[in-house]
Amino acid sequence: MDDRLLHHYERELQFLRDAGGEFAQNYPKIAGRLGVGEEGAPDPSVERLLEGVAFLTARIQLQLETEFSTFSENLLTLVQPETLTPTPSFAVVQLTPDAGEGSLLGGYTLPMDSAMREVSGYSGNAVACEFRTLTPVTLWPVELMVAEHIAAPAALLGVSDIVDAKASSLIRLRLRTCGGQPFCSLALDELSLYLQDCAGAAALYEALLAQSCGVVVRSGDGSGGEVYLDAACMCPDGLLHDALLNDQPSHYTVLKHFFAFPEGYRFVRITGLGPAIKSCRSDSLELLILLHSLKTLPAELSAEAFALFCVPAVNLFPRRCDRVPIEHYAHEYPLIVDRARPQDYQLHQIEAVWGYSATGRALGELRPMYGPLSHAASRVGEYLLRRAPCGRGYHAQAGDVGSQVFISLNVADATEMRHLAVEALCSNGGLPLHMALGKGSTDLVPDAQSPVRAIRLLCGPSRPLPAPAQNLNALRAVHQLSRGYLPLAQADGEAGAQALRDLLALHLPPDHQAGKRWLEGICTLRSEAVARRITGPGPLVFARGLRLELTLDEAAYEGIGAVLFGTMLEAFLARYIALNSFTELRLVSRQRGELMLWRARSGQCPAL
Question: Residue 237 contacts by C-beta under 8 Å, 6 or more apart in sequence?
């Protein structure tokens, strides 16, 4: 039930009482026959009649009010569909490779969008939750044996003189192959590390990305030489993986993922390991991550702080919904994923709609109304969607309101079409929160055959978030369509910070208390127009962009860290700024000064 109905009901009832009193004052004889006086309706039956009329007119008022939202929702669905969809459950899963598989020597890559399902029977759920990987992950017969932080300057004496002179401490990671084969037999070029949920995860993330001044790679037994990699070899991974960012349609997805599951951003990738790996003839390898500061790292560091072969996953999968019977006296039809288990599925996004006749003959595909292909001559009709909140089943138990999607049709031959077939992206709503984890040898099993012995959920599943409230969609549509970087281009730091807070608040879920605290931690945002040379083949070319200085109050980012929040914002701004421009972000802590400086990144937002 929409809460706005009560507001309209009370307003209409008050209007009827006020209008009835005014009518009784002007026409007392007629009002007497109607049972209405200046003080209201003394007759309880007349009062009940007024309440019934107020309820009916309140429904009409609500319907009129939602018409503009219906228009704006469908318009925004065409421009930026992910804005109006609910947020499914996220998780970080760790894959344990089967060391006996010979295919691991060349590296086995589990591609993006690989399916894995919950093991049936552990949780008692009738439906097994399904997750899809958001980034590719490559498995190797390698395990992490030792991780330690060495703060003594004497530890740097054994490192070659080519290292950065600013290094004052290091993090030592010792790797070993599972089958005893030398590292030079592996075609390993990069390694992804997930920082597990511990007290020092935020400080460790800052140390690896903001305080690193290079990595020394050497054999574990001391044989061979050392290979030095500069600090550029350390880069964010996970939900900030290049493949995922290139696949994301807009900047909004970066924010949506972060507000729903910030733990999915605690990935760090070490690149450029190929030459050092090829020269290592031992079954052990050491990575010495050099740091120029040791103020923020935890006192004790162990191998449990890192995890190999991890990947972010989302409870989102393609599925064909149950057939929708067409009854031509109805103006809209509910879309139900599975009528046998309606509470275990939530429709996320429509992919395709087909029409069928009574005999099962395919009539063709329906297109979204006003969509880019709606003018095609072969179309059989168009459809509009409406999403309404509803609380039921596991959605209500998990605190997720859930939603029901309705479809309205505009078809060329309404008499012939009798059924609809709908392909959609679906989730299990709040069902992943009831998964039984850690009971067997594995939490999930992959759909395809792969050299994986076990899949464990290291972090999550996160709580799903409902679709944005209907009365906020119109405002959100206006802001989305009027997107531009000019509000952020402020020389006044306070004005720039307020513009950034307003922009981020537009995408923040209403009840996200931690997110509100993060926005309050934005102190200043200063910007300056600069020109930079574009490196690459061809003639000398310069581009104009923005140099941004963001100051944060670290007290507001306890648990995630200011550097993690700044890394997300740097990726967000790159997708927010238009093509043929760039951003150059400098992150400053109000307590400690400069934390990190990113290189200029080209804008990735397409412009008409």
Answer: 135, 192, 193, 267, 268, 269
Q: What separation in angstroms does the CA of 527 have from each of 495, 550, 600?
A: 11, 9, 14
Contact (Cβ atoms closer than 8 angstroms) between residue 226 and residue 159 = yes
Helix axes 493-505, 513-520, angle to 10 degrees: 160
Q: What is the DSSP letter of 233?
A: G
Which run of H or E residues covers position 95?
strand 90-97
CB under 8 Å to 443, separation ≥6 — which residues?
93, 118, 119, 435, 437, 454, 455, 456, 457
Residue spans of the domains in the chain: they are 4-79, 144-306, 317-427, 470-602
Q: Per mean pLDDT, which range of 27-41, 80-94, 121-135, 270-284 is the poorest? A: 27-41
Q: At CA 537, angle to CA 533 and CA 543, rounded to 5?
A: 25
Q: How far apart are CA 166 and CA 170, in angstroms?
A: 11
**122 touches 436 (CB < 8 A):** yes
Q: What is the DSSP-derived secondary structure letter of residue 283?
A: S
Q: How many CB atoms lie within 10 A of CB 102?
A: 9
Please compute Rg for the chain using Cα positions: 29
Q: Which residues contact residue 342 at a Cβ distance below 8 angstroms, ignoring those fewer than 6 apart?
A: 336, 392, 393
What is the 8-class DSSP label of residue 418?
E
| Rounded Cα gap, residues 229 and 217, in angstroms | 8
pTM above 0.85, yes or no: no
Dig out the tokens for 83 from the structure. 């804005």
130: its two tokens: 């399904």
CB 164 within 8 A of CB 290: yes
What pLDDT does 208 receive?
A: 92
Tokens 């941004």 — which residue? 548
Whole-angstrom distance, CA of residue 485 vs CA of residue 500: 10
Closest CA to 579 of 602, 601, 600, 608: 602
pLDDT digits (tens, 9 = 90+) for 249-293: 567 788 888 999 999 999 999 999 999 999 898 999 999 999 887
Q: Are strands 362-368 and 381-389 parallel, antiparallel or unpaired?
A: parallel
What tokens does 386 get? 């409406």
Tokens representing 369 are: 């109304």
Phi (first) and psi of residue 281, to 5 degrees: -100, 15
Q: What is the mean pLDDT of residues 28-32?
A: 70
Say which range, 17-31, 203-217, 476-490, 499-513, has the weakest mean pLDDT: 476-490
